């Protein structure tokens, strides 16, 4: 009798434990889901935001310090002490709007989630870097094989490169051989994407010395470290690399009419009109964009199932 009672009590306790455990797990899952939605750019009321940033040398384009998106911990966490572009921007030190200096990054930008660089710049490269919370825009600008490939030709990236050697573009001079080769596209190695397209623009700006050449080059592809690898392919190393422009967005837009030289680390928000005219992209509500994408994918799966049944 006592054994049967003990058995019933044990079963009841087991059921109560399972119910309690399920409720707790569901609560934890819901809480985690909300955090993940915010982390992935799906914060309620958030829309496309683009930051125009002047990246200094030595600042890295990495998410290693932005994994928890915390404004309370902006100290360098890399072993060598370098900060990331995300930390630099979120610190508000370079924000060029005196009226909002007392506001936080989230208050100024409306970004409460993770944001991304539109095309990375390596640690030694300086210049224009765009940051956004809209993953679709990143894909639109950086992926030549995307559905927006027709627009890709308009979204060029312009660089000034100080390279080794004395080079010209005069076909009658022997010093033009390497750059003329570059103008037709070069093989940067199968591992890095193989043959490149011809540059959209290639010109010699000047010769700082008898052993160096300052070149302006514009490309519409987005291969990893492509400009450096293109010059390496013709046997000329890059001493300094500076990005001036992406699409119709350039560093001069940071000056906002001022004649003062823009300091490295400076940044500001682009307007909706600038995003549209400069990147051929319309500002959109990100939550709605995700729902539309999910619905489209669901419809595609359904239509695919129907075709298989036939």
Automatic annotation (TrEMBL):
Residues 1-40, 286-310 are annotated as: Disordered. One of its GO terms (molecular function) is pseudouridine synthase activity. Belongs to the pseudouridine synthase RsuA family. PANTHER family: PSEUDOURIDINE SYNTHASE FAMILY PROTEIN-RELATED, RNA-BINDING S4 DOMAIN-CONTAINING PROTEIN. This is 23S rRNA pseudouridine2457 synthase. Residues 50-233 form the Pseudouridine synthase RsuA/RluA-like domain. It holds the Pfam family PseudoU_synth_2. GO terms for biological process: pseudouridine synthesis; rRNA processing. InterPro entries: PsdUridine_s_RsuA/RluB/E/F_cat (IPR042092), PsdUridine_synth_cat_dom_sf (IPR020103), PsdUridine_synth_RsuA/RluA (IPR006145), PsdUridine_synth_RsuA/RluB_CS (IPR018496), RsuA_PseudoU_synthase (IPR050343), TruA/RsuA/RluB/E/F_N (IPR020094). Keywords: Isomerase.
């Amino acid at each position: 009798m006592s054994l049967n009672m003990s058995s019933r009590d044990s079963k009841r306790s087991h059921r109560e434990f399972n119910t309690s455990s399920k409720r707790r797990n569901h609560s934890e899952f819901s809480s985690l889901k909300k955090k993940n939605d915010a982390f992935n750019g799906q914060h309620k009321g958030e829309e496309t935001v683009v930051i125009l940033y002047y990246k200094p040398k030595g600042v890295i384009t990495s998410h290693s310090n932005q994994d928890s998106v915390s404004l309370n911990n902006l100290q360098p966490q890399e072993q060598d002490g370098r900060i990331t572009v995300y930390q630099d921007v979120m610190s508000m030190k370079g924000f060029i709007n005196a009226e909002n200096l007392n506001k936080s990054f989230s208050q100024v930008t409306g970004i409460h989630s993770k944001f991304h660089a539109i095309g990375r710049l390596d640690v030694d490269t300086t210049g224009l870097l765009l940051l956004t919370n809209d993953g679709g825009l990143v894909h639109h600008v950086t992926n030549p094989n995307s559905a927006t490939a027709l627009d890709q030709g308009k979204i060029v990236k312009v660089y000034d490169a100080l390279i080794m050697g004395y080079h010209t573009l005069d076909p009658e001079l022997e010093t033009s051989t390497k750059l003329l080769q570059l103008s037709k596209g070069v093989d940067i190695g199968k591992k890095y994407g193989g043959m490149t397209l011809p540059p959209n623009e290639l010109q010699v700006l000047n010769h700082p010395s008898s052993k160096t050449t300052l070149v302006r080059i514009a490309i519409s592809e987005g291969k990893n470290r492509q400009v450096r690898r293109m010059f390496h392919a013709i046997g000329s190393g890059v001493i300094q690399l500076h990005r001036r422009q992406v699409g119709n967005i350039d560093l001069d837009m940071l000056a906002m009419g001022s004649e003062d030289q823009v300091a490295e680390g400076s940044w500001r928000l682009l307007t909706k009109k600038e995003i549209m005219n400069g990147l051929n992209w319309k500002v959109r509500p990100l939550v709605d964009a995700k729902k539309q994408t999910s619905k489209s994918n669901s419809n595609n799966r359904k239509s695919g199932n129907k075709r298989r049944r036939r």
